[in-house]
Prior knowledge:
With 192 residues, the chain is of the alpha/beta class.
Amino acid sequence: MATPTLVLASSSPRRRELLAQIGVEPARVQSPDIDETPHDGELPRVYAARLAREKALAVPRGTGEIVLAGDTTVALGRRILNQAADGDDVRRFLALLSGRRHRVCSGVAVVDGDGKVREKLSESIVRFKRLSGEEIDAYVASGEGIGKAGGYAIQGRAGALIDFVSGSYTGVVGLPLYETRILLKSAAYPLG
C-alpha cells in the first residue's frame, strides 16, 4: 500500500506552521468553501467539531490522499466569538474577555484514504488579565487580532496579556498537535 499524502483543508498559515513543528508538510493546501454560520442554539464545542468535519469533507480527496481540517472557536459561556472582521470587533471582544476566563474549542477532522472521518476535540481555558483601555487600544492598533477567532493571537502580542492557560497551547493557536498526531497516525499517515 502506498504512503498517503496529506491535503490541508485550510487557509490558515498558522496551521501549516504548527504541522511543520511535528515534521508534517502537506502535499497540497486548499481552502474549503463552507458556510461558517453557527446554527441556532449551537454550542461552541459542537460548532467547532462540525466546522472541522465540514471543512475536511468540502475539499476533494484524490487517490492516496487524506484530508486534514481544523476549526478554532473562542467561547465566552455559550456565546461564540467568531473571527474579528475589523478593529471594532477586536475592541469589543477584548472588552468582553478582559479579566475573565474563556474557552477555546479546537476541532480536528481527518478523512482517511477510505473516506472514513475521524475526529477529535481539544478544549482549553484562557484568561486575559484585566485590560486597561490603553492596552486594548494598543492591541487594536497593532492589527494582529483582525481575522482571528476571539480577536486575538496568543502566539503574538496578546500572549503578554494572558495570565492563565490550561489545556492545549497549540489548540489555542489553531491546531491541537496532540490530537492531530493521533488522528494522522490512525489514518496511516507516516509520523516519526
